[in-house]
Amino acid sequence: MTKKNLMLLCVFIAAVWMAVPPEAFGQLFGRRVVQQRQQVQQRQSLSAGPQIHMLFVWGTKATDTHWATRISQTKIERAFNSRDEINLPRNSRHVGTYLTLEGNNAAPQNIINACERLARNAGPNDAVFVYILCHGASVYEDDDTERTARIHALSPMAETAENMDLRTIGIRRSTILHAMKSGSPHRFTMLVTDSCSVLRSEEELRQAKPYMSGAMESWRPPVLRSVLAHLLLTAEGTIDINSSHPEKGSMNQGELALAWVPSFRNVRNDRQFLRYATEDGSRMRPGVDNWGAVMHSGTVFTNAFLAVAAEQREFEASARASVAEFLGDLTRNLDRQYKDTRTHVQRSGGSGIELFMQQPTQTLTHFDEMGVALP
User: Fold this and answer.
1) In what order do the strands lie in the sheet with 237-243?
2) Stated pTM of the model
3) 74 lies in which domain range?
4) Is residue 23 one of the residues assigned to a domain?
5) Number of folded domains in the chain?
6) What is the pLDDT of residues 73-91, one digit of tens each?
7) What angle do CA 37, 40, 46 make, to 5 degrees?
């Protein structure tokens, strides 16, 4: 190209630059960048197989449920990292995103941002999984003057059940689910919350119960996997679960998501306590612990969930199972775990006996898209 032609080209580019509004360039190139990023994500997802994008939220600011939360958190995290249980550690080739929020970081906006990040990272063949353990309640919307629908909400930053200000530090479960689905369509969405569903009012809080909804879709895993890994890698649709129901329990005020915290002699520090409360008794000093303490410590839902989710099964390539089967197993196991824990608490003593005696069971329940429990 001659010097003269080069000068003419520069003049032409300058003229175009002056004539076209700057925002047009931003929209053009910004759209291309987004499209290219989505194409790369789709290619990566398809080439690496299905990916799971996960978020765990722990309400560790709560002083009244501190040890129940810590015990359950330890059990869940250990199960995800154990080859003999769920076996989905953060460095697994199946895990595309692994996020954790707790304490002051578990603010509602941070949860929404994290869920939207999972949705952005998820390709069309991927799954988004969110597990939250914190205080929760059922509430009426301000415009629901007839009191027809109780909305389920969470308060991961509440320090106690009594100061659970859902207007300032609360978040609707429907908002979380919406954020999980905010990106491009992905194969499977699973929201699991372990929280109370007590009706939030001026009266004394009463007991509440679990929630869940799921699509009846099929799965076809070809290898030995945990039930949860199999579900997240192959199922389609949506599961939306909580561990208590807002319209059952004492005086129709809802159920509590109950837990049991054991006590031990001669415990030197918090770390030793967590080990005694969560590890297999065979690894501990004789006489310090018993199998029941490990079996029933933490929230009832944690133990029920792990009993189903961490089970290892060999799935044939031709095998077909439904999400409804997973939900049915979890529902039955929660009822069984509650009754067993209730019996154990009666025999062993400790705090929480009155609450277990007042609440005959704990139930898993379906939600609609607004977060309202179905019968």
Assistant:
1) 95-102, 52-58, 127-133, 188-194, 237-243, 210-214
2) 0.75
3) 49-261+297-358
4) no
5) 1
6) 999 999 999 998 999 999 9
7) 140
